[in-house]
Amino acid sequence: MTTKNATIKDVAREAKVSVASVSRVLNGLGGVTPVTQKIVREVAARLNYVPDNAARSLITGRTHTIGAVLPDLHGEFFSELIRGIELAARAQGLHLLLSSTHDGIEDAAAAMRAMRGRVDGMLILSEHVDAAFLEENLPDKLPAVLLDSPVKSARYPVLNIDNRAGAIAMVGHLIEAGHQQVAFIGGPKTNYNAQQREKGYRTAMARHAPDAPLTLFDGNFSEESGYRAGQQMLAKKPRPQAVFAANDMMAIGCLRAFREAGLAVPGDIALAGFDDILVSRYLTPPLSTVQVRIADLGRLALERLAALLNRTDKTPASVQTLGCDIVIRESCGGKAAAGAASRKLRKPPRPSRS
């Protein structure tokens, strides 16, 4: 028997088990032997049986859907993040509902309220989120995992990238390569990642080049803001010997400004970014950068949320900090980079309890 309109009763009859057993298998409720589970899943696949999600939600109290609230849905960083979340969600048998909050705090609140009753849990990456915001906009019993957040809460696990350590390592490399005067292009002032990367720049300069001036330019993570910062650098006397941009898109914009002015990278000025988006390795010259495993960040966040939903995670909420690499390519130049277009310095993941 094969039909596109097969019912749960059809599956039960073909598998020679009760409707209750089929329901338990397909809803992951347990209490059924592995052999029976295998038979039920094979029969359901053969009959093209598609569960009625509305009815299943009434039985289980779950929607099997996860909400992800992100600042934006465009660009290589968010594409990779969503890819990691989606692949992990699929492996867990979960669906993904996405919303962006790029217009501010009210949009973030509206997105989270709109997901109430439609999702079993949320992944939240937003510069507007603090403990008070979460308390006001998230139901008490709705599990959530925060990404790239300064929030420390007994309720919500947090996954962060070690932005500060990555920035320290990259600026340290630029100075070791012979570039004492390193300029920094920052990201949005309210963005946690941007704040941590600026702290890393300041720490590395104080540690490795204490007599060199700090030279900072404003940016907003966009290519255009990096282009504007590059133009401003061209007018600065003396010009910096190297530039560290708080993300790769700004580094790409800066590279465009230098090219238009006839400057050679790295011959006249060295350049580095942060994130290691795919296009970075295909630039001319290839861009040195701090490599963030963006898809892994999404995957780990989803897996942590799934563990909360399945009640398999009994550990207290914590802040888990994921390490990153620096990837040295041709854009750095300098004595230490001669003859070594690419190498990696590894900083391992570091969990810390909140």
Layout of helices and strands:
Layout: H1 8-15, H2 19-26, H3 34-46, H4 53-60, E1 65-70, H5 76-91, E2 95-100, H6 105-114, E3 121-124, H7 131-137, E4 144-147, E5 158-161, H8 163-176, E6 182-185, H9 192-208, E7 215-217, H10 223-234, E8 242-245, H11 248-260, E9 270-275, E10 288-291, H12 294-309, E11 318-322, E12 325-327, E13 344-346, E14 350-353
Parallel strand pairs: 1-2, 1-3, 3-4, 4-5, 5-11, 6-7, 6-8, 8-9, 9-10
Antiparallel strand pairs: 10-12, 11-14, 12-13
Low-confidence stretches: 335-354
Mean pLDDT across the residues is: 86
Structural class: alpha/beta
Assess the beta-strand content as a share of residues: 15-25%
**Which sequence of strands runs across the widest sheet?**
2-1-3-4-5-11-14
Q: Gyration radius, to the nearest Å?
A: 25 Å
* Morphology: elongated
Query: In which range does the helix fraction lie?
Result: 40-55%
CATH topology of the largest domain: Rossmann fold
Number of helices: 12
Level-1 CATH class name of the largest domain? Alpha Beta
Q: Which CATH-level-2 architecture of the largest domain?
A: 3-Layer(aba) Sandwich
- The count of strands amounts to 14
User: Strand-and-helix sequence, N→C?
Assistant: HHHHEHEHEHEEHEHEHEHEEHEEEE
How many separate domains make up the residues?
3
- Within CATH, the superfamily of the largest domain carries the name Response regulator
Task: Give structural attributes.
354 residues, alpha/beta, Rossmann fold, 3 domains, seven-stranded mixed sheet, 12 helices, 14 strands, 17% strand, elongated
